[in-house]
Amino acid sequence: MSLPEPEVPTLKFEEALARLEAVVARLEGGELPLEEALGLFEEGVRLTRLCTTRLEEAERKVSLLVRDEEDALREVPFGEEEEGREDG
Questions:
Q1: First to last CA, the chain
Q2: Angle at 53 between CA 52 and CA 57, to 5 degrees
Q3: Strand spans (E) along 1-88
Q4: Helix (H, G, I), strand (E, B) or coil at 60
């Protein structure tokens, strides 16, 4: 049985991912009636979107300390650390 739509946005990332894995496992089993499979598929899409949103939010919050060309530490947003490094 799928989760009611209003409950999905309240799930934490770990809960949503675990539920998504369970949904995928049930769908891969291939023994579900069509209506139940469609409901689970729709739930899986909602869970995927939720997980993606949660990951994007976390990535925006993460910052790293990197050394610049003067060997000083500076804070940069996650994903931009390579731009501030000089190799060699």
A1: 57
A2: 120
A3: 63-67, 73-77
A4: helix
Q: Which two tokens stand for residue 50?
A: 């939720």
CB 3 within 8 A of CB 15: no
Domains and their CATH numbers in the chain: 5-61 (1.10.287)
- Enter the pTM of the model: 0.66
71 to each of 36, 39, 63, 80, 86, how far by Cα in Å?
58, 55, 18, 17, 10
Q: Are 23 and 44 in contact (CB under 8 A)?
A: yes
Regarding beta strands 63-67 and 73-77, do their DSSP bridges make them parallel or antiparallel, or are they unpaired? Answer: antiparallel
DSSP state for residue 69 in the 8-state scheme: T
- Alpha-carbon distance of 50 to 74, in angstroms, equals 32
Going from the first residue of the chain to its last (88 residues), give the mean pLDDT of each consecutive group of 10, the final group possibly shorter.
59 96 96 97 97 90 77 77 52
